[in-house]
Write the structure tokens for this entry.
Amino acid sequence: MRNAVTAIGLVFIVGRFYHGELRPDEVRPIVMKFIGAYFYRFGLFALPQAVTSAFRLKMRPDAHVFGFSQLLARWTVMDRLHEIEVPTLVLGGRHDFLFPPEHQAILADRLPGAELELIERAGHSPHAERAREVIARVRPFMVTGPRRPAGSLGAH
């Protein structure tokens, strides 16, 4: 039960963050509460990247709040994805808390001819956590294009 309560609290603060519903002085403390959600396993390996990311946010928290609350409020391209006419690789982490595989599948399904690749043991930053695996998935796609015909969704 404690994990469920913790997860609900985390979802709430992440929502406040990405909707710009916070004051500039709250940005850094809130980021520090959920930065681990970007990684499958948050430890010493992920720490340098996490600190760098948090530092960048700390430099202009007022810009962050304005951008998410004013410029990106209710912004979406989901209803226009069918207009993309090039092969697309949707690549994400199997354990992505911020953009879970179910949502990645919806994105891939709405992109004509898209291919969905999920990286195991990775969160929101598979390129940082599993770089070799990401390159191994991206390289063949760049050379040969998608492995499946348009309209047939499948995760590998």
In short: The chain has two domains: 2-71, 78-144.
